[in-house]
Amino acid sequence: MKIKIGKYPNRLTCNIHSNHMNKKYGVVDWPKVQDRKDDVLESIEDAVQTVYNMFNWIWFDRRTQKIKVRIDRWDTWSMDHTLAHIILPMLVQLKRTKHGAPRVDNADVPKELRMSKKDMTQFAKDGSTDDKFFKRWDWILDEMIWAFEQKCRDDWEGDFYEYNFDGTERFGLKLVWEDREGSKAHQKRMTNGFKLFGKYLENLWD
User: How many structural domains does the chain have?
Assistant: First the structure.
Protein backbone atom coordinates (compact mmCIF):
# COMPACT_ATOMS: atom_id res chain seq x y z
CA MET A 1 0.00 0.00 0.00
CA LYS A 2 1.14 3.49 -0.81
CA ILE A 3 -0.95 6.55 -0.03
CA LYS A 4 -0.14 10.17 -0.78
CA ILE A 5 -2.76 12.79 0.05
CA GLY A 6 -1.92 16.44 -0.41
CA LYS A 7 -3.24 19.42 1.53
CA TYR A 8 -6.71 20.74 0.95
CA PRO A 9 -6.65 23.64 -1.54
CA ASN A 10 -6.26 26.92 0.30
CA ARG A 11 -8.59 29.90 -0.06
CA LEU A 12 -7.96 33.52 0.79
CA THR A 13 -9.91 34.39 3.93
CA CYS A 14 -10.06 37.54 6.02
CA ASN A 15 -10.46 36.86 9.74
CA ILE A 16 -9.99 40.34 11.22
CA HIS A 17 -13.43 40.37 12.82
CA SER A 18 -13.51 36.64 13.68
CA ASN A 19 -10.12 36.72 15.42
CA HIS A 20 -11.10 39.86 17.32
CA MET A 21 -14.38 38.32 18.51
CA ASN A 22 -12.75 35.02 19.52
CA LYS A 23 -10.11 36.86 21.53
CA LYS A 24 -12.61 39.20 23.15
CA TYR A 25 -15.53 36.87 23.86
CA GLY A 26 -14.34 33.33 23.31
CA VAL A 27 -15.03 30.92 20.48
CA VAL A 28 -18.66 30.10 21.35
CA ASP A 29 -19.81 33.10 23.40
CA TRP A 30 -20.23 35.91 20.88
CA PRO A 31 -22.96 38.38 21.97
CA LYS A 32 -26.00 38.90 19.75
CA VAL A 33 -25.51 42.68 19.94
CA GLN A 34 -22.00 43.96 19.08
CA ASP A 35 -20.38 47.24 20.08
CA ARG A 36 -19.19 49.85 17.56
CA LYS A 37 -15.65 48.45 17.21
CA ASP A 38 -17.04 44.97 16.58
CA ASP A 39 -19.33 46.33 13.85
CA VAL A 40 -16.52 48.28 12.18
CA LEU A 41 -14.24 45.25 12.08
CA GLU A 42 -17.06 43.13 10.70
CA SER A 43 -17.62 45.63 7.89
CA ILE A 44 -13.89 45.66 7.09
CA GLU A 45 -13.77 41.87 7.07
CA ASP A 46 -16.76 41.68 4.71
CA ALA A 47 -15.22 44.23 2.31
CA VAL A 48 -11.83 42.51 2.23
CA GLN A 49 -13.41 39.10 1.84
CA THR A 50 -15.38 40.35 -1.17
CA VAL A 51 -12.10 41.19 -2.89
CA TYR A 52 -10.55 37.90 -1.78
CA ASN A 53 -13.49 35.97 -3.25
CA MET A 54 -12.69 37.32 -6.69
CA PHE A 55 -9.20 35.82 -6.49
CA ASN A 56 -10.64 32.61 -4.99
CA TRP A 57 -12.98 32.24 -7.96
CA ILE A 58 -10.22 33.00 -10.50
CA TRP A 59 -7.59 30.67 -9.05
CA PHE A 60 -7.96 28.99 -5.68
CA ASP A 61 -11.40 27.41 -6.14
CA ARG A 62 -10.29 25.75 -9.40
CA ARG A 63 -7.62 23.66 -7.71
CA THR A 64 -8.29 20.17 -6.38
CA GLN A 65 -6.73 18.08 -3.65
CA LYS A 66 -4.12 15.65 -4.98
CA ILE A 67 -4.79 12.07 -3.91
CA LYS A 68 -2.88 8.96 -4.99
CA VAL A 69 -3.70 5.55 -3.53
CA ARG A 70 -2.11 2.22 -4.48
CA ILE A 71 -3.49 -0.93 -2.89
CA ASP A 72 -1.36 -4.08 -2.94
CA ARG A 73 -2.89 -7.54 -2.99
CA TRP A 74 -1.79 -8.36 0.56
CA ASP A 75 -3.40 -5.21 1.99
CA THR A 76 -6.78 -6.94 1.94
CA TRP A 77 -5.70 -10.26 3.44
CA SER A 78 -6.60 -8.74 6.82
CA MET A 79 -8.14 -5.48 5.73
CA ASP A 80 -9.46 -4.65 9.20
CA HIS A 81 -5.95 -4.95 10.61
CA THR A 82 -4.42 -2.93 7.76
CA LEU A 83 -6.88 -0.08 8.17
CA ALA A 84 -6.41 -0.03 11.95
CA HIS A 85 -2.76 1.00 11.51
CA ILE A 86 -3.90 4.00 9.43
CA ILE A 87 -6.96 5.00 11.46
CA LEU A 88 -5.29 4.83 14.90
CA PRO A 89 -2.68 7.59 14.43
CA MET A 90 -5.30 9.77 12.71
CA LEU A 91 -7.63 9.47 15.69
CA VAL A 92 -4.79 10.25 18.10
CA GLN A 93 -3.88 13.37 16.15
CA LEU A 94 -7.51 14.46 15.84
CA LYS A 95 -8.00 14.31 19.59
CA ARG A 96 -4.83 16.34 20.12
CA THR A 97 -5.63 19.08 17.57
CA LYS A 98 -9.45 19.25 17.44
CA HIS A 99 -11.15 22.62 17.88
CA GLY A 100 -14.75 21.51 18.37
CA ALA A 101 -17.09 18.63 19.07
CA PRO A 102 -20.36 17.24 17.71
CA ARG A 103 -23.39 16.40 19.76
CA VAL A 104 -23.05 12.93 21.29
CA ASP A 105 -26.07 10.74 22.04
CA ASN A 106 -26.61 10.00 25.72
CA ALA A 107 -26.89 6.28 25.02
CA ASP A 108 -23.28 6.20 23.79
CA VAL A 109 -21.62 7.46 27.00
CA PRO A 110 -21.61 6.49 30.69
CA LYS A 111 -24.41 7.84 32.90
CA GLU A 112 -22.13 10.38 34.60
CA LEU A 113 -21.46 12.09 31.27
CA ARG A 114 -25.01 12.19 29.95
CA MET A 115 -26.91 15.41 29.25
CA SER A 116 -29.82 16.18 31.54
CA LYS A 117 -33.33 16.73 30.15
CA LYS A 118 -33.03 20.42 31.04
CA ASP A 119 -29.75 20.75 29.14
CA MET A 120 -31.20 18.84 26.18
CA THR A 121 -34.15 21.25 26.02
CA GLN A 122 -31.84 24.24 26.18
CA PHE A 123 -29.55 22.80 23.49
CA ALA A 124 -32.51 22.23 21.18
CA LYS A 125 -33.70 25.77 21.85
CA ASP A 126 -30.55 27.81 21.23
CA GLY A 127 -27.61 25.41 20.85
CA SER A 128 -26.26 26.08 24.35
CA THR A 129 -23.83 23.41 25.53
CA ASP A 130 -23.54 21.98 29.04
CA ASP A 131 -20.28 21.57 30.97
CA LYS A 132 -19.89 17.94 29.80
CA PHE A 133 -20.39 18.60 26.08
CA PHE A 134 -16.71 18.30 25.16
CA LYS A 135 -16.05 15.57 27.75
CA ARG A 136 -18.55 13.33 25.99
CA TRP A 137 -16.72 13.67 22.68
CA ASP A 138 -13.36 13.02 24.38
CA TRP A 139 -14.80 9.83 25.86
CA ILE A 140 -16.06 8.70 22.44
CA LEU A 141 -12.65 9.39 20.86
CA ASP A 142 -10.89 7.53 23.66
CA GLU A 143 -13.07 4.47 23.09
CA MET A 144 -12.35 4.54 19.35
CA ILE A 145 -8.62 4.93 19.98
CA TRP A 146 -8.58 2.09 22.50
CA ALA A 147 -10.47 -0.22 20.13
CA PHE A 148 -8.06 0.40 17.25
CA GLU A 149 -5.08 0.01 19.57
CA GLN A 150 -6.33 -3.47 20.40
CA LYS A 151 -6.92 -4.25 16.71
CA CYS A 152 -3.31 -3.30 15.99
CA ARG A 153 -2.20 -5.87 18.56
CA ASP A 154 -1.82 -9.38 17.22
CA ASP A 155 -1.97 -11.01 20.63
CA TRP A 156 -4.52 -9.24 22.83
CA GLU A 157 -6.30 -12.56 23.35
CA GLY A 158 -3.16 -13.75 25.12
CA ASP A 159 -4.04 -11.49 28.06
CA PHE A 160 -6.84 -13.89 28.93
CA TYR A 161 -5.25 -17.33 28.84
CA GLU A 162 -1.96 -19.04 29.65
CA TYR A 163 -0.37 -22.24 28.37
CA ASN A 164 2.48 -24.19 29.91
CA PHE A 165 4.64 -26.80 28.22
CA ASP A 166 3.53 -30.29 29.15
CA GLY A 167 4.52 -33.31 27.10
CA THR A 168 1.29 -35.13 27.97
CA GLU A 169 -0.88 -32.76 25.98
CA ARG A 170 -1.13 -32.38 22.20
CA PHE A 171 1.66 -30.18 20.82
CA GLY A 172 3.17 -30.24 24.32
CA LEU A 173 0.97 -27.37 25.56
CA LYS A 174 -1.49 -27.39 28.44
CA LEU A 175 -4.03 -24.69 29.23
CA VAL A 176 -3.46 -23.71 32.85
CA TRP A 177 -5.50 -20.51 33.09
CA GLU A 178 -8.31 -18.87 31.11
CA ASP A 179 -10.55 -15.83 31.66
CA ARG A 180 -13.43 -16.30 29.22
CA GLU A 181 -15.59 -13.56 30.74
CA GLY A 182 -12.72 -11.09 30.61
CA SER A 183 -12.08 -11.97 26.97
CA LYS A 184 -15.75 -11.49 26.09
CA ALA A 185 -15.86 -8.12 27.86
CA HIS A 186 -12.70 -7.04 26.06
CA GLN A 187 -14.11 -8.00 22.67
CA LYS A 188 -17.44 -6.32 23.49
CA ARG A 189 -15.67 -3.04 24.25
CA MET A 190 -13.67 -3.30 21.03
CA THR A 191 -16.81 -3.95 19.00
CA ASN A 192 -18.50 -0.96 20.60
CA GLY A 193 -15.50 1.25 19.74
CA PHE A 194 -15.75 0.21 16.09
CA LYS A 195 -19.51 0.84 16.16
CA LEU A 196 -18.91 4.35 17.52
CA PHE A 197 -16.35 4.93 14.76
CA GLY A 198 -18.96 4.08 12.14
CA LYS A 199 -21.67 6.13 13.81
CA TYR A 200 -19.54 9.27 14.24
CA LEU A 201 -17.45 8.91 11.09
CA GLU A 202 -18.85 12.11 9.57
CA ASN A 203 -18.00 13.99 12.76
CA LEU A 204 -14.28 13.20 12.55
CA TRP A 205 -13.18 16.69 11.63
CA ASP A 206 -10.83 19.28 13.10
Answer: 2
